[in-house]
Amino acid sequence: MGDPLIATDEASARDAIGWAVSEKTPIEIMGGGTKRALGRPIQVARGLSLAGLSGIEDYEPSELVMTAWAGTSLAEIEATLAANGQRLAFEPPDYRALLGGAADGATIGAVFSCNLAGPRRTAAGAARDHLLGIRGVNGRGEIFKAGGRVVKNVTGFDLCKLVAGSFGTLAALTQVTFRVFPIPEAEATVLVIGLLEQDAVAVMIEGAQSPHEVSGAAHLPAGIAALSGVSAVGGAGRAVTALRVEGPAPSVVHRVAALRRCFAPLGEIEVLEAEGSQAFWREVRDVTPFAGDSRLVWRLAVPPAGGAAVVAEVGRRIEAEAILDRGGGCVWLATAQKAEEAAGAVRDAAATVGGSATLIRAPEAVRSHADVFPPLAAGLRDLTARVKRAFDPLGLLNPGRMYAGL
């Protein structure tokens, strides 16, 4: 691919895509480049970088809403919010270590384009649930906008929800408006040591259904827990099941005590206070235990009660290591087998409980030929194709990034 076209403002992004339309030249839409290894590789002659479309356009802390240009670094967004005691509640992950991608920081536009969220998704929702408004350029070279600064401004068809998670195949996002939330006064994580996976899932579900407002629930088997940089986890010598609570300090103390009483009969209990808790959930969020090796990494979305069964089913067919996140509803798998063998085992296991599997990390040669995202049924593929044509009639924006031919 030649040198990318550089967008420095919305008009230049429109002009670049307008040029691509006039030349019928497919282009790759990119931000900081940290997520290029997500999805299928794109074979195009030119790219369009939106990293220069940067800056926070509007932010009123009292309104809990921020508007930023899509190329604004996630680090700048988070630093600005932290200075005002606020955060992105959906906990966007940093997959640079996992994917071995660009060293430059992620951009806020890419976070929403890929709809990325961390362990707090079960409590706070996905990235798209926080997106209030967008501006972008479609595949006709037209600037469009949707949504607004408040939820009640979103009328008609919610294009924000549609574009979020489309991986740049529908439009080049130029500006995003999103909700932010106050940073809780306190945070702690209750660890239950030594549970088997099925028992861990039961604990996580019970914790999530309790009145204690659990904002994160994950299970690490002994071998994975041993890799943690948090001493209480890495030194446990056994599997670790974690339940996070956040909020006013007295409330956190009360809820931690209640969870300890509830689960003490099941195993040894440890508690991670603020810094240890934050470090642990960063490891879970970024899938740190699977960083630095060459195995395929899969993310499965399954009913929480089926998480342990899926792991067991995969283990009967292939060698795999697993992390259970989001109360068992998100299963991270690392597999060393050939892609075809692993894909069959992983997707079959997910399907047994009505779930799906996405291939998050694999060599480019594998991603070029394998189904990266869950395969589409015929009717859904037809609908996806029609939506793609409506936004991008010539199929020029990130062609094939999610599905071959789309």
Question: Low-confidence segments, ≥5 residues, pLDDT <50?
Answer: none
What characterizes the major β-sheet? 5 strands, antiparallel
Strand content: 15-25%
Using the 3D structure, state the CATH architecture of the largest domain: 2-Layer Sandwich
Query: Structural class of the secondary structure composition?
Result: alpha+beta
Looking at the structure, what is the overall shape?
globular
Distance between the termini: 20 Å
Number of helices: 15
Share of residues in helices: 25-40%
Task: Could you tell me the CATH topology label of the largest domain.
Answer: Uridine Diphospho-n-acetylenolpyruvylglucosamine Reductase, domain 3
What spatial order of strands do you see in the largest sheet?
Answer: 4-5-9-7-8
Give the total of beta strands: 18
Let me know the average pLDDT.
Answer: 95
What is the total domain count? Answer: 3
User: What is the gyration radius calculated from CA atoms?
Assistant: 21 Å
CATH class of the largest domain: Alpha Beta
Question: Any overview of this molecule?
Answer:
This protein is α+β, with helices and mostly antiparallel strands and 406 residues long. Helix content is 33%, strand content 24%. It is built from 15 helices and 18 strands. It has helices spanning 10-23, 74-83, 96-99, 108-113, 121-124, 159-163, 197-209, 222-225, 231-234, 249-263, 274-285, 307-317, 339-352, 364-369, 378-391, and strands at 5-6, 27-30, 46-49, 56-60, 65-69, 86-87, 131-138, 143-147, 171-179, 181-182, 186-193, 214-220, 240-247, 268-272, 296-301, 320-325, 330-335, 356-361. A hairpin with a 4-residue loop joins strand 4 and strand 5 (65-69). The chain is globular. The two termini are 20 Å apart. The mean pLDDT is 95.
